[in-house]
Design brief:
heterodimer, A: 174 residues, mainly alpha, 68% helix, 10% strand, elongated, B: 257 residues, alpha/beta, 6-stranded mixed β-sheet, 33% helix
Chain lengths: 174, 257
């Protein structure tokens, strides 16, 4: 979450609660619920690392609020994050190791493992397809949430690739 | 009761389609190749079954044999309690026309007829009145977003549009069994969802579906998924329901993470 807050602060200074609202507004349902406590803790750490600085602003009839702004070091850290490509897709390491090792240990056959994994993936796909249908209905009713829709589609495409890869394992190993 | 004791009797009355030891062989350069090697499957009344499996595992061949488009080499096929693999071509065609809709991977639309005529033809052949056939055609094309293509020739349509017309044609008779080969194979994401919705409604109305697909979204809607490998059934299991009482988009990252 560190970089996400830095990115928001690059646009304008803000206090913790404004950052939470901004995340909700920009990502809709697609962002895993930003928790206000987590945001305050992250801001404090960013300040300790010199990436943001804060200023107490007095408020009438209320406790002071801390407004955060990006430092030069923060701007550089943000630039490094933006310029670095995102991580590549992860291969299902745990399953793959299981698929190779379990039959050697005489614990389970490969066909059995592949079948079990395929059933699990399809079960997840069913849930994702349900979310996609709900997102389509929301869009049709004028409540379009583009980041959420794209996130679901991304998860579906990844899962399809996992299933295709499972098929390749079946072809090569059985 | 042993299988031999059941011989000659209608198979399980709950089964709409049922095969016993189904084999399909081809002759290639004097060598016989078994594409389907002893398949036993059941499709219940109103059941939705998906067949997955690598390319060349015999999925399309199996579907073609079940649809009567190719003759089985050995084994039995039962449809609605009646053994059909021994029927004459004409008798089977008649039975199919009334009970089975077939959607091909490569559409097979009649090129010298309009989209509307292609979709109405099966209903007319099965004895529906022109009025009924037209009404059904209009409903199906509307559901698939193709109303404005009714008077077009199939050749003027994109691959994805032809695929949806082929699905509409297969459903024109409200068959008790829809056989479909890769029904979303040529579609983009949004057209795929139109087809998914129509398949779901077809299933909800009590029609059975047996389809071959690589698309996990299509397969995940089924009641049961069969995996075919090297011409044999490698897996046949009901769809897993992963408990998730309040599924939400927020779960997506964790779902997949």
């Amino acid at each position: 979450m560190r970089q996400h807050l830095l990115a928001l602060l690059a646009k304008e200074s803000a206090h913790g609660y404004e950052l939470k609202s901004a995340l909700e507004q920009i990502f809709g349902e697609a962002y895993p619920s930003p928790n206000i406590g987590q945001i305050y803790v992250t801001l404090k750490r960013l300040e300790q690392d010199g990436l943001v600085r804060s200023e107490d602003v007095e408020q009438a009839n209320r406790p002071n609020k801390k407004v955060y702004e990006l430092t030069q070091a923060g701007r550089e850290a943000l630039r490094a994050w933006v310029e670095e490509p995102g991580e590549g897709p992860r291969v299902r390491d745990e399953f793959f190791v299981k698929l190779i090792l379990a039959p050697m240990a005489g614990l389970a056959g490969r066909l059995e493992l592949i079948n079990l994994q395929r059933r699990h993936y399809l079960g997840i796909m069913r849930n994702l397809a349900g979310l996609q249908a709900a997102a389509d209905r929301a869009a049709a009713a004028g409540r379009e949430d583009v980041p959420a829709r794209l996130l679901i589609e991304g998860a579906i495409l990844h899962l399809q690739a996992d299933l295709d890869w499972l098929e390749r394992c079946q072809e090569e190993l059985l | 009761m042993s299988r031999s004791a059941l011989k000659g009797l209608p198979s399980d009355s709950k089964a709409l389609l049922h095969t016993v030891g189904l084999v399909k062989m081809y002759q290639a350069d004097g060598v016989s190749v078994e594409a389907v090697r002893g398949v036993d499957i059941d499709v219940g009344i109103g059941e939705f079954v998906a067949i997955m499996g690598p390319s060349g595992s015999g999925k399309s061949t199996l579907l073609h044999v079940l649809g009567g488009l190719e003759k089985a080499s050995r084994g039995e096929i039962w449809l609605r309690g009646q053994r059909v693999d021994k029927l004459s071509t004409a008798a089977w065609a008649l039975l199919r026309r009334r009970h089975v809709g077939f959607m091909f991977q490569f559409f097979n639309l009649l090129s010298n007829m309009t989209v509307a005529d292609n979709v109405e033809l099966p209903a007319l052949l099965a004895g529906a009145s022109p009025k009924q056939a037209r009404k059904r055609r209009e409903e199906l094309l509307a559901e698939l977003g193709l109303s404005d293509k009714a008077s077009a020739a199939p050749a003027r349509l994109s691959g994805g549009e032809q695929q949806r017309v082929a699905l509409a044609r297969a459903l024109a008779n409200e068959p008790s069994l829809l056989l479909a080969d890769e029904p979303t194979g040529n579609l983009d994401s949004s057209n795929t969802r139109d087809v998914l919705r129509l398949l779901q409604r077809t299933h909800a109305s009590g029609q059975a579906i047996l389809l071959v697909t690589h698309d996990a979204r299509v397969a995940s809607m089924a009641d049961r998924v069969i995996n075919l490998f090297d011409g044999m059934v490698a897996d046949d299991a009901p769809m897993l329901r992963i408990p998730r009482p309040v599924p939400s988009v927020r779960d997506v990252l964790e779902l997949h993470g």
